[in-house]
Design brief:
The chain has six helices and no strands. The protein is mostly helical.
């Protein structure tokens, strides 16, 4: 059994390694004339996410973002690390261990947290579209109860995953 967070370096190594292998394959494809991903466009998309814009008619025509190439590559590798960190979820899903009460609590926390974050983000987007000045503060919906309900949802989701881990190996 691993100590808490001791798997993090493993996830980083596996995630970075697997992503690098994928990048070698992308390079081979590109050299053969096959169009591949332009990670600057990923960085541009992520850069616009920070300002609340999720969808674009065409990301290539969207306003460029400072440092988009670096941001795109960092995001690309971060996703690889997250995927590697989630590999144990597969083991839990195919395990013959019966579902227990802590699994149910973990599921409720993770799904509830995701809903809280989604609703809070939607309320914030609506507020930003309707507000009359930049000083106007959102104080309705979930924002009536918390200054940052979206962050509460995000953090609660990770607590739900931690509960899943505890349920899988309570020792």
């Amino acid at each position: 059994s691993m100590e808490p967070l001791s798997a993090l370096p493993h996830a980083v190594v596996v995630g970075v390694g697997a992503t690098a292998v994928m990048d070698v394959w992308l390079l081979a494809l590109k050299r053969s004339g096959v169009p591949t991903m332009d990670f600057a466009l990923l960085g541009r998309w992520v850069g616009h996410l920070f300002h609340g814009q999720v969808a674009h008619e065409a990301i290539r025509r969207a306003r460029p973002v400072a440092g988009e190439v670096v941001l795109g590559w960092l995001t690309h590798y971060a996703v690889g690390i997250v995927f590697a960190g989630l590999l144990p979820v597969y083991s839990a899903m195919v395990s013959e261990r019966p579902v227990g009460p802590l699994d149910v609590v973990a599921f409720v926390v993770a799904v509830g947290a995701t809903l809280v974050e989604a609703v809070a983000d939607q309320q914030l987007r609506g507020h930003l579209d309707r507000r009359s000045s930049h000083e106007e503060i959102l104080a309705s919906g979930l924002w009536k109860y918390s200054r940052h309900p979206n962050y509460f949802g995000e953090n609660s989701f990770w607590w739900g995953l931690a509960l899943f881990g505890l349920a899988a190996d309570p020792h």
